[in-house]
Design a protein that fits this description.
The structure is a single chain. This protein is mostly helical. The chain has 29 helices and three strands. β2, α29 and β3 form a beta-alpha-beta unit.
Length: about 675
């Protein structure tokens, strides 16, 4: 009887294994087809939504990440995403500086496209080298063993982000660009044009402004073809480069957030070919942080494109730091130094976060090396480690030296005032306590050391806030740059709210009949907790979600006011909006309008309106909509055109300003 049962079980086992194998092959085929469809969708969406220049940046980042995963020891797995982001931005910055040095004048479309394509060429060459090395591995044990880079998750995020941008752009004329033109956005276009006129990044620019992100946006604009455009179309064209920069930065934040979370999971989990459905849900939900009111809303409300685009650089440093703790390698450590420099020249004071991470990782490596020496280990650190130490510590020391030698200038700059919508002032402290709790509540010593990375960034961010508040008149008030630093450091740490959700979703303790029920239960839990985390992040700021506002045509400036300004500015005469909409909307419209007709290679705007305090640009930024303001502009600016919705504005202007020669034009969209 027993022998019959054993024979039956063996007979049944073979078909089950066969069916399992067949099911596995079918699933692999479905995954492959889905991935290929995703690639086609990503290429189509990128070319139609971003255009060729930004698509080259996206392709270069993807290929550099793939090259790191395949070729560089210690950068296998999803940490390669972070490495790809840093290498792409770093290569573009270095090549832009070389181009300005070799040819210090405005470059044409082809030169800028060549600049953007250079990282693609470097990545393809590295991948080709990796293929050659793989073919030379003749023994099975010599073949490289890699963690999965999980390109499917990255592709999902990219397709979703590009589809969202395409949807916004399809809602109406200029809907896809208006949301990127608020606040300081126009000032970034001025910096972009300065970079374009210089041929790339120059030392003089870096001494006065953190220009790295604006230089990338300049290359995107230059690569898209700017010559021959009418004034109105030209400023809209440059604004589209800001949109592309926002989108690329948002994709970087989304993917590197997932990379950081995966680096915190146990090796036994990340080594799996497939993660649990609940884990996928939590990871993809975490990528939505890049579009929240806190992270993206603060940036778009006030036009902080360079600050927003610096967040993925700091997140990449954090991810590399987590990877260094997990498996210390020279490559991951060597990239931490350039992360400090790139952050410093993108948004200066945020560099304290990657600098603190470098100090923490270096201390942990020193303790580990001391332990190895005490146990009789190898005393020779190796040339790769020596090189990585020289690079990273050299970048740290050089950045600190620049900071100290320019401390007076930095203090003067950080005392400047400005307008910014503040998040909850206790947010960073909450996130710091979360990081501290993760350190003390870690299950293993490895987890504890890893959590020192975000904790050190939070601590450095908190200390920088204390220093910035000390620059205020009473040495304790929140300043403009203090609030901005609070927002940025918090945005770099908010992914910690998803860490317990992702960790809980990976548990698979139950087996047998209850496994299916447990999987469904964990999926529902992941959805619920992820939504709760996103809602909690939304409550940290009074700003609404920017995606909804963008889909409605934005406001200040609205898509419609930009459309009117674009048409009017193309006529080649000075133009302002008046009585068209609310004063805030008009001010921003006039701010952009002045860029169309009041901008020269030296930004000598005051010559166009000498009677206006500060010139037409600053008047457009601060005018209050009074008849006196309009009369001042009409008297000071020759051939001024006033676009309005107010049908009797010409009569009103003649009364208050009888000597005015301005032309009043009733907008085609005028109210009845």
């Amino acid at each position: 009887m027993v022998s019959s049962m054993l024979a039956l079980s063996e007979t049944d086992a073979a078909p089950r294994r066969s069916r399992g194998r067949a099911g596995f092959d079918v699933l692999r085929a479905v995954e492959l087809v889905a991935f290929l469809v995703g690639i086609v969708a990503a290429v189509a969406l990128s070319l139609t939504t971003l255009g060729l220049p930004a698509s080259l940046v996206l392709l270069g980042t993807w290929l550099l990440a793939a090259a790191c995963h395949r070729v560089v020891p210690g950068l296998q797995g999803t940490v390669s995403w972070a490495a790809g982001v840093l290498l792409e931005v770093g290569l573009l910055a270095v090549l832009s500086g070389l181009m300005a040095k070799l040819s210090p004048h405005e470059q044409g479309t082809n030169a800028n496209l060549a600049l953007l394509a250079a990282p693609v060429v470097v990545a393809v060459a590295a991948l080709a080298m990796g293929l050659v090395l793989d073919r030379r591995a003749t023994k099975e044990e010599d073949a490289p063993r890699r963690e999965s880079a999980r390109p499917g998750i990255a592709l999902t995020v990219i397709v979703a982000g590009l589809a969202l941008a395409a949807h916004l752009g399809s809602q109406g004329h200029l809907y896809g660009v208006a949301w990127a033109m608020s606040g300081d956005a126009r000032n970034h276009v001025v910096v972009m044009r300065s970079v374009l006129l210089s041929g790339g990044i120059t030392i003089n620019q870096l001494r006065s402004f953190p220009v790295a992100i604006d230089a990338m946006a300049a290359a995107l604009s230059g690569g898209g073809g700017r010559s021959g455009l009418a004034p109105g179309h030209l400023f809209v064209h440059d604004a589209w480069a800001l949109v592309d920069t926002y989108i690329l930065a948002g994709l970087g934040i989304a993917t590197v957030t997932i990379s950081a979370l995966l680096e915190c999971l146990p090796r036994t989990t990340t080594a799996l070919r497939r993660l649990s459905p609940a884990t996928y849900i939590a990871l993809l939900a975490s990528s939505a942080l890049s579009t929240t009111g806190l992270v993206l809303g603060t940036a778009t409300r006030d036009g902080y494109v360079s600050a927003y685009a610096t967040i993925p650089l700091t997140l990449a440093a954090m991810t590399l730091g987590l990877a260094c703790v997990r498996r210390a390698t020279p490559a991951a450590y060597a990239l931490l130094g350039p992360a400090i420099v790139l952050t410093f020249f993108s948004w200066t004071i945020l560099a304290v976060a990657p600098a603190a991470i470098v100090v923490t990782i270096t201390a942990l490596l020193a303790v580990r090396a001391r332990g190895a020496l005490a146990s009789g280990g190898n005393r020779n650190p190796g040339l790769l480690w020596i090189g990585s130490l020289v690079v990273t510590l050299g970048c740290l020391v050089a950045t600190a030296g620049v900071w100290l030698t320019h401390l007076t200038l930095l203090k003067t700059t950080f005392k400047l005032t400005g307008a910014i919508t503040a998040p909850n002032v206790h947010l960073l402290y909450v996130l710091g306590f979360v990081a501290a709790g993760a350190v003390f509540g870690a299950r293993t010593s490895l987890d504890r050391r890893q959590m020192l990375v975000p904790f050190s960034a939070a601590l450095a961010g908190g200390l920088s806030l204390v220093w910035l508040m000390g620059l205020s008149p009473d040495h304790k008030s929140w300043t403009y740059y203090g609030i901005k630093q609070l927002w940025l450091v918090s945005s770099c740490l908010v992914w910690l709210l998803f860490l317990p959700i992702v960790q809980a979703s990976t548990s698979t303790s139950t087996i047998g009949p209850r496994l299916a029920f447990q999987r469904v239960s964990r999926m529902l839990q992941a959805v619920a907790w992820s939504l709760a985390a996103l809602v909690a992040v939304g409550l940290t700021t009074p700003l609404p979600g920017p995606v909804t506002l963008a889909g409605q045509g934005w406001n200040q400036p609205s898509a419609q006011v930009l459309a009117d300004i674009e048409v009017a500015a193309d006529q080649g005469r000075p133009v302002v909006m008046w009585g068209w909409s609310d004063p805030g909307n008009e001010r921003l419209a006039n701010f952009w309008s002045s860029l169309a007709w009041g901008y020269t290679s030296t930004d000598a705007i005051k010559a166009f309106a000498p009677a206006l305090p500060g010139g037409i640009v600053y008047w457009a930024y601060v005018e209050q909509g009074t008849p006196t303001d309009l009369c001042d502009a009409a008297r000071s600016v020759r051939d001024l055109v006033i676009v309005t919705h107010t049908k009797d504005l010409a009569k009103k202007l003649k009364k208050v300003c009888p000597t005015s020669l301005a032309t009043v034009v009733l907008s085609p969209t005028a109210r009845p």
